[in-house]
Amino acid sequence: MARFINDRKQSTGKMPGALIYLGEKKNDKPLLRLIHYTQDEVVEKKPETLDECLTYIADNSVTWINIDGLNDAKLIKNLGKLFNIHDILLEDMLDTGQRPKATETEDLMVVILKVLYYDDKNHKLSSQQISMILDDTYLITLKEQEGDYFDPIRERIRTGKGRARRKSADYLTYVLLDAIVDSYLVIIEKLGDLIEKNEPNLFAPKHQKGLMQNMYKLKTEVNFLRKNIRPVKEIVLHLIENESGFVDEENHKYFRDLNDLVTQASETIEIYQTMLNDQMVIYHANLDTNANEVMKVLTVFAAFFIPLTFVAGVYGMNFDNFPELHYKYGYLFFWILVTSIVLGLLIYFKRRKWF
User: Fold this and answer.
1) Reduced 3-state DSSP string for 146-168
2) 3-state secondary structure of 145
3) Which of 18, 195, 285, 317 has its CA 20 to 30 A from that of 64?
4) 160: alpha, beta or left? (left if phi > 0; alpha if psi -120 to 50)
């Protein structure tokens, strides 16, 4: 299956808003996790149904509902019914190839983006879509599969470290987005290290075997990274500039700082993409230079042998009257002649600095 776009055969011809999961089935059964907290207390649950979560949503508190697994269309349909989410937005959440974006309605804010994973062994990126549904008192996150990205944040909420327990749901959204963007920077650093390690090998012929294949693989991963990270800047700007009140003005400074991180990530990706393009150009230039050196050597050898072949051809003609054939020192004269030609060409080439 193509990495840059999902197989959309299942949704072809379906009506808009049809709840069809477009992605790999990664969980047999969706897993619900709930954290409800105020400044003074924390409640954690693993509810069986979404209806149980409604009892925890209240003013002056934050309820974080996390759903791992998107392949249960019935659950997603019920989510839309309980929290007044339009089917079009639910459809986007189930399309794991959806471009990262932020959308707001009168009732809530929806953010869709990618969490990226890096396979250190195979040097390959994979992605998992995460959707965030933000209201004044709750945040709902939907992921394709269970993961440990947000475990440190859960631990901070449990222990009361940091500002999360004193802030509202928009700050929790910021904290989750910050964790995702930080992971982007870690992955960019790993890819960047591999790209920079290619530079010395560009000028070492013994290390050039497989170098082009490696550069092309890195270029594919950088493009995959770029595709998923560039739209995140639009998301953060949308959160900063929105006038609907989903993000408290007091928390804008955190989102502005997050915007700086996303900008840094995007600019670094562009730099490494340019470096890869330059490395490919240098690689091909080196191949052309090496080929030219080989042709130069062959041309020099040919320049030596062309006049020698001419002389040998002249004296190889079968005419009856050939004065030099009966000359006593004809053989010696031939070698003196060809040696003089070779030495003359050698001096000429040296003066012209052709080798």
Assistant:
1) CCCCCHHHHHHHHHCCCCHHHCC
2) coil
3) 18
4) left
Structure tokens belonging to residue 93: 């959440």
Burial bucket for residue 173 (CB in 10 Å: 0-12, 13-18, 19+): buried
What's the CA gap between 132 and 169, in Å, rounded? Answer: 11
Helix (H) or strand (E) holding 328: none
Match 């009257």 to its residue by tokens: 321
Q: Among candidates 234, 309, 225, 232, which has minimal Cα distance to 269?
A: 225
Q: What is the pLDDT along the chain (355 residues), one digit of tens a residue?
A: 555 665 555 554 455 555 565 556 666 688 999 999 998 899 999 998 999 999 999 888 999 999 998 878 888 889 989 998 888 888 888 888 888 999 988 888 999 999 999 988 888 888 889 999 999 899 999 998 887 778 899 999 998 888 888 888 999 999 999 999 999 999 999 999 999 988 888 877 666 778 888 888 999 999 999 999 999 999 999 999 877 788 888 889 999 999 999 999 999 999 999 999 999 898 888 888 888 888 888 888 888 888 888 888 887 787 777 777 777 787 888 888 888 888 888 888 888 877 6
Q: Determine the Cα–Cα distance for residues 312 and 315; give it in Å rounded to an integer.
A: 5
Residue listed under structure tokens 């040998």: 312
Residue ranges of domains in the chain, CATH in brackets: 9-286 (3.30.460.20), 292-351 (1.20.58.340)
Q: Are 163 and 149 in contact (CB under 8 A)?
A: no
Sheet of 31-37: strand order equals: 42-45, 31-37, 62-68, 138-143, 124-134, 109-119, 101-104
Per-residue tokens: 301:
């050898």
In this structure, are strands 101-104 and 109-119 parallel, antiparallel, or unpaired? antiparallel
